[in-house]
Amino acid sequence: MNMEKAKSKTAPSPAIAAKKKPAAARKQRKRLPKSAYSPAEITEIFRRFSVQRPEPKGELEHVNAFTLLVAVVLSAQATDVGVNKATRALFAKADTPQKMLALGEDAVREHIRTIGLYRNKAKNVILLSRMLIENHGGEVPDDRDAMVKLPGVGRKTANVVLNMAFGHPTMAVDTHIFRIANRMKLAPGKTVDDVEENLLRVIPADYLFHGHHWLILQGRYVCKARKPDCPACVLADICRSQEKTCDVPAALVPIE
User: Which terminus of the chain is more solvent-facing, meaning fewer CB atoms within 10 Å of its CB: N or C?
Assistant: First the structure.
């Protein structure tokens, strides 16, 4: 048998193979729960956030991308207030990877001993400082894949730094955002990654840059874990949460 004829019987043509790949990719893509809100309502939600807090800011004190990275690493299972108290003196002495490495793990540990898991965090701060010097010229990389390879740095931490230090429209899903996304049925998901993907899908592009700050502040000060303060919420007439603590019914937002 001719070899070219044999190949044609056993292998699909490049055109056929190309058609099959997208279909296979679609089958593997996870189906995320739908938002309980229409696109017009979601736009109105974030429009109200933008009026309430035109320029939302993260509450972790920092002076550059490196100190922001360290602060976010230290904030795991700790409050921003507690981290700020511990890092003011630390960052006054060490605001670069080189200075942090020279300071040493013992000294870092003493500065942050009031923060939960401080021993392991001090170790990670020194290790990530060394890796930044050895692999990135002492600079925090503007790249998520590179950042998550640093000790103590996960996807959420990388997203915060990419957003605040480098201006990327990322969605850093913490416990507040995860709670709100599910409680409000804004972008439901069983995992942090699912909620992140869902929020990136539904939030209008014009509001995405500040999106995670608005949601964090909403969860921290209004839509609290134990009892949401619905009477003080700018979304009370839109929210479809079953945990609402006021009598304002959810109403459709009219499309002008």
Answer: C
